[in-house]
Amino acid sequence: MTDGQRQIRDQAEEWTVRSSEQPFQGRVTGVRTDEVLMPDGGYARRDYQTHPGSVAVLALDEQQRVLILRQYRHPVRQRLWELPAGLLDVPGENPLHAAQRELFEEAHCKAGEWRVLVDFYTSPGGTDEALRLFLATDLSAADGERYEAHGEELEIETARVPLAELLRLVLAGELHNPTLVSGVLAVHAAQTSPVGLAGLRPAESPWPARPFS
Fold first, then answer.
1. Rounded distance, CA 106 to CA 161, Å?
2. Averaged over 50-77, what is the pLDDT?
3. DSSP 3-state of 4
4. Which whole-number Å values give the CA distances from 194 to 114, 144, 199, in the listed order?
5. In the predicted model, is pLDDT for residue 104 greater than 60?
6. What residues contact residue 25 under an 8 Å CB cut-off, 6+ apart?
7. Distance CA 65, CA 143 (A)
8. Which 3 state secondary structure label does DSSP give 166?
9. Mean pLDDT on 125-138
10. pLDDT value for 213
11. The dihedral of CA 132, 138, 144, 150: what is its sign?
12. What number of H helices and E strands is found in the chain?
């Protein structure tokens, strides 16, 4: 898509960094501090969270219901409804395989059809976390034993809610998880587009933000 002579598309770019340090590294994420050269010739300090990346799944059944989970999120002091999601713990991990694992572990579910719904940075002003959100359809119960939950996962609740009701709740300001909000709006947009869900990208589409083999 273009606006006059401009192509409307994000592009890779890296400004000059005079210094960079990582004052904190946790089990999964860390904090990095960079001094970045600004267009006026000065330098500005930028602190941001480093993150390995994430995947999430919007699982849509034949009755147009979405599989959602509710769990406690301490930073915001709320129990939020969300989509099944997880970290890309292994560098270069195939995001589709990670998403299939999360759907199994969090909902004991599998899907016969997978497509990329949308890719986004969760909060690009404060973290480098990139997230790939998949659409999973043709749902059925997974084989084998259920995954044994631990820690905060013991409190997870599950529900299947009609997509139309989730859309209403998102627009009413009742749901706040960014992945759920993005997924609900994206799948509604895809369904109502001229090409429908068939126009979504294949599940193994390249992902420059988190390359995989």
1. 16
2. 97
3. coil
4. 20, 40, 9
5. yes
6. 31, 50
7. 21
8. helix
9. 98
10. 80
11. positive
12. 3, 13
